[in-house]
Amino acid sequence: MKKKDHTTLGIIFIAVFIPIFFFNRHHQEDKRPLNVLFIAVDDMNDDLGCFGHPLVKSPNIDRLAGQGIAFSHAYNQFPLCSPSRSSLLTGLRPDSTRVFDLHYHFRQGLPDVVTLPQMFMRNGYYVARVGKIYHYGNPGEIGTNGLDDKVSWQERYNPSGMDHTSLEQDIINYTPTRGLGSSLAWYSDSIGRDTAHTDGKVADIAIRLLDQHKKGPFFLAVGFYRPHCPWVTPKKYFDLYSLDEITLPEVNEETKKNYPPLALASTRPWPDFGVTREQARQSKLAYFASISFVDAQVGRVLHALDSLGLRDNTLVVFWSDHGYHLGEHGLWFKRSLFEEAGRTPLVFSYPGMQHRGAVCDRLVELVDIYPTLADLTGLQPPPGLQGVSLKPLLENPQAPWDRPAFTQVQRGKIPGHSIRTEKWRYNEWDYGKKGRELYDEVNDPHELHNLADDPRYADVVKKLQEQLHKHHPRPVTGGKALPNTKALYCN
Question: Would you kindly state where each structural domain of the chain is located, as residue ranges?
Fold first, then answer.
């Protein structure tokens, strides 16, 4: 064969077979299991830059939203730590888990339920938890028992920083009759670095585990404790805000006339736990500082993900367990049926997304996270999940979607139930016997005007009531608490 012929064959080989080699190699890489970085924060409402808040500084969460899709109307199923987290992690609603408080463990009634992390573990993933994912007490105390779920994890880490040890004696508490975990309480730490605080330690361990398990596949759950009260962070995060910028909604005795008494019963004495307006404003500033502090720790973990070259093969989901009141209706914390407690931040980011940076306004629920992660990773979920996959909205944030969102609470033995549609929110207390509420979410987004007894909206009330009663067909009460289990760190 002539030299020219050899040259021609070489060119043909390069032109044909080398691209096939790289295509196959790339195709094989695409078939690798997606890692999952599962980031949770505690008691964070949607006062974030990516949702349009004009004051709160949350650059890292905002950046994550810019790399994925943020859901502006994501709703939890029960605005209290353990009920919400138990629902999300089992893929079942509170009426099924029977978790309505901080004492009952879902496995008492559902011993064989397959949790979200268990699904990944059964499919060969390394599965670990750092910090708070299920509800349990203070870091380092009952994190290995209590309301955690040992069988959901291969490894568990419960770091505890100076915010839970040496600094507790310095915390300023405006509501001293309440425990620190349910008080308007704060401290600006001028000595400790980020990594001396619990959430800084959570980020440290998460970064180490990412490095150790970078070959994957992994499901790494990273649970931060802030912005849960008491609001203790390094001083530099307090310095991001000025008290002159902090305002509160106006409330007075006339406010009470708009609502059933049970709607306002989560904050006693009402309003604002009886603190002064200046104390309430300082508390709100401290809450914002805590958001900025935990945002910085989220940023450290995401930076490590990028530095380790894992972003192109990792699905990141960011969520909070519920929303949070900062003086709206005179209320603080959670456990209400108002929009502020029901709505929570939710962000998905993964390789190949076509609408990065979009905000999806469709109504979704935290119970949808489990089937969504199964769908996106190609895993087979257990039967009976009560949410739906959000993949259609992740592929097209404007896709048709007509599912309502349901939230519920308990006032002792009295249930409160809520249905949220794009236009309306309808609430019932004790199936309507203790009061009803109807709000026009388009024209009254702050839920100031209760229309439930206005005859002009009788047809709306009837339709929403039928949907709500179909969803909650009979009273359901919680289970018996685990013995020797204390409800710590969460009101």
Answer: 33-405
Q: pTM value?
A: 0.91
- CATH class belonging to 33-405: alpha beta
Q: Are 385 and 400 in contact (CB under 8 A)?
A: no
**Residues known to be catalytic:** 81, 135
CA 39 to chain centroid, in Å, comes to 8
Pairing of strands 424-429, 436-440: antiparallel
- What is the number of other CB atoms lying within 10 angstroms of the CB of residue 169? 7
The continuous run of DSSP H or E covering 438 comes out as strand 436-440
Give residue 31's pLDDT band: very low, low, confident or very high (50, 70, 90).
confident
Q: State how far the Cα of 109 lies from the Cα of 114, in Å rounded to an integer.
A: 13
SS3 of residue 191 by DSSP: coil
What is the bridge-based pairing of β-strands 343-349 and 69-75?
antiparallel
Q: Which residues contact 145 (CB under 8 A, 6 or more apart)?
A: 136, 485
Bigger pLDDT: 31 vs 152: 152
Distance CA(236)–CA(340), nearest Å, equals 27
CB 370 within 8 A of CB 387: yes
**pLDDT tens digits for 289-322?**
999 999 999 999 999 999 999 999 999 999 999 9
E-strand ranges in 52-200 read: 69-75, 126-131, 155-157, 172-173, 185-189
Which is nearest to 221 in space by CA: 235, 205, 245? 205
221/35 Cα distance (integer angstroms): 11
